[in-house]
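To the wet lab folks,

You asked to see what we're planning to order before we commit. Fair enough. Below is the target structure as tokens, and below that is the sequence we designed to fit it. If anything looks off to you, flag it before the synthesis order goes out.
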């Protein structure tokens, strides 16, 4: 086996990762089951909104891409209100 890719809970991910590591197999983990879209202070607010909409549209094709929540720091949040 060349690589293990796992999507699931943190608890199960730890077990999968430990098993793979003990056999020298690299892993890619997506843990926790939520997809946040993060928008930081230096973000281009218009691009952030655009990418949020793109990811929601893409979700119709591949559900795992859909953001379930958006986390925005204060500065972009204020800019988005304008």
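Sequence we intend to order:
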């Amino acid at each position: 086996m060349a690589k293990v890719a796992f999507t699931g809970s943190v608890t199960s991910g730890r077990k999968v990762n430990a098993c793979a590591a003990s056999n020298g197999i690299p892993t890619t983990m997506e843990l926790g089951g939520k997809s946040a879209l993060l928008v930081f202070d230096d973000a281009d607010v218009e691009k952030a909104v655009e990418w949020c909409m793109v990811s929601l549209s893409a979700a119709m094709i591949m559900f795992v891409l859909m953001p379930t929540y958006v986390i925005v720091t204060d500065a972009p949040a204020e800019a988005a209100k304008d």
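Structural context that might help your review: Residues 1-33 form one domain. The chain has two domains: 1-33, 34-82.

Thanks,
Computational group
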